[in-house]
């Protein structure tokens, strides 16, 4: 980075020049990408962390005292502190609103269209969904996190493996064990519910 050039760009940006804002963002992009790749924050993916960094960078431009002539040091410290704060907050909040109390999307309830099934099937499906919710809550935190990340947030198993820094095959093994647990518990509920209806 050319520190003097960045100081000039910050001055231009503070006077309302949008192109200089883009130029500053471009200068800091390699640093932001590197910083975002190195950290894991619960329920944040790489793009989320990167966006938080850009938000912090633009806030730094707004708050920077141009008489100090140390914008690069000021901004890099602020970016590191911002990411560290995200990590700390995710760790502090985890017991209260992390994977222990994941609120799964209600769209799981919309598994079938009522018109295409009889009342018995509809009731059974409702019981299965209710059972599935309760069985998911009985899984370990790591298992709940995997389900949330892949099935509810639509991310890939490969991305989860990279994020957690574990092997892809270990993640697939976890997925198979989780599905076996859920299938076993929901199939029991299905047979019980059908017996009750008969």
TrEMBL record:
Gene Ontology molecular function terms on file: DNA-binding transcription factor activity
Gene Ontology BP, a term: DNA-templated transcription initiation
Protein known as: Uncharacterized protein
Naturally occurring in which organism (per UniProt): Clostridium fungisolvens
Phylogenetic placement of the source organism: Bacteria, Bacillati, Bacillota, Clostridia, Eubacteriales
């Amino acid at each position: 980075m050319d520190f003097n050039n960045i100081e000039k760009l910050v001055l231009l940006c503070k006077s309302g020049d949008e192109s200089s804002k883009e130029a500053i963002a471009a200068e800091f992009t390699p640093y932001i990408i590197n910083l975002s790749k190195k950290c894991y924050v619960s329920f944040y993916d790489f793009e989320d962390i990167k966006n938080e960094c850009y938000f912090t960078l633009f806030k730094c431009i707004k708050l920077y005292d141009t008489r100090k002539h140390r914008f690069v040091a000021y901004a890099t410290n602020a970016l590191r502190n911002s990411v560290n704060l995200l990590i700390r907050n995710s760790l502090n909040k985890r017991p209260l609103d992390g994977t222990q109390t994941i609120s799964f999307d209600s769209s799981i309830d919309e598994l079938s269209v009522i018109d295409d099934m009889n009342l018995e099937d509809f009731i059974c499906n409702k019981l299965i969904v209710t059972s599935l919710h309760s069985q998911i809550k009985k899984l370990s935190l790591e298992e709940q996190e995997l389900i949330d990340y892949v099935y509810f947030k639509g991310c890939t198993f490969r991305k989860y493996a990279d994020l957690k820094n574990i092997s892809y095959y270990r993640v697939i093994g976890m997925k198979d064990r989780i599905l076996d647990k859920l299938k076993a518990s929901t199939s029991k509920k299905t047979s019980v519910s059908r017996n009750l209806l008969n």
